[in-house]
Specification:
Number of strands: 8
Number of domains: 1
Helix content: 10-25%
Strand order of the largest sheet: 1-2-3-4-5-6-7-8
Number of helices: 3
Structural class: mainly beta
Distance between the termini: 32 Å
Length: 150
């Protein structure tokens, strides 16, 4: 799955900006190299456009959208446009430079009949921010777990 994402600037921007105010004094005490690294952080709310591709052929299979919030401290919350999965919770970590990785888990629901939990899906991502840190691309792998029918 290849994804190109951009930092979302809108109603939730205040939620991203306010926590950053508390760290402004700490940034002033850091050297220029450290300040540049913080400015390139993935922390924030991202509007994500998704293109699902075949792992074997690379052919596009579909598109989608999501909103992903990377929080200070390494947690991530995701809301997908997919109607048969709930918001996902997970963690992220900085790999160095402009590289990050995430691990998130979602409950999935049956597409047919009553809304019953079908299983879970674990999503891993390798993320690369662009030079201005306002877009990223990533490769993601989804690993579903189907619950046994009772």
């Amino acid at each position: 799955m290849n994804v190109k994402s951009s930092l979302w600037k809108g109603m939730l921007a205040a939620a991203v900006f306010l926590p950053a105010l508390g760290s402004a004094a700490a940034q002033d005490q850091q050297g220029p190299a450290q300040q540049g690294q913080q400015q390139r952080s993935i922390v924030g709310v991202w509007d994500v456009s998704i293109t699902i591709v075949s792992c074997t052929t690379g052919a596009p299979l579909g598109t989608g959208s999501a909103m992903v919030m990377f929080n200070d401290g390494g947690t991530v919350t995701e809301v997908s446009g997919n109607s048969n999965q709930n918001p996902g919770l997970g963690t992220w970590r900085h790999l160095g430079g402009s590289s990050y990785s995430t691990l998130s888990k979602f409950f999935t629901y049956s597409a047919f009949g009553p809304a019953t939990i079908n299983g879970t899906q674990v999503l891993t991502r390798e993320i690369e921010l662009n030079k201005t840190a306002n877009e990223y691309t990533n490769t993601a792998t989804a690993r579903p777990t189907i619950l046994p029918v009772t």
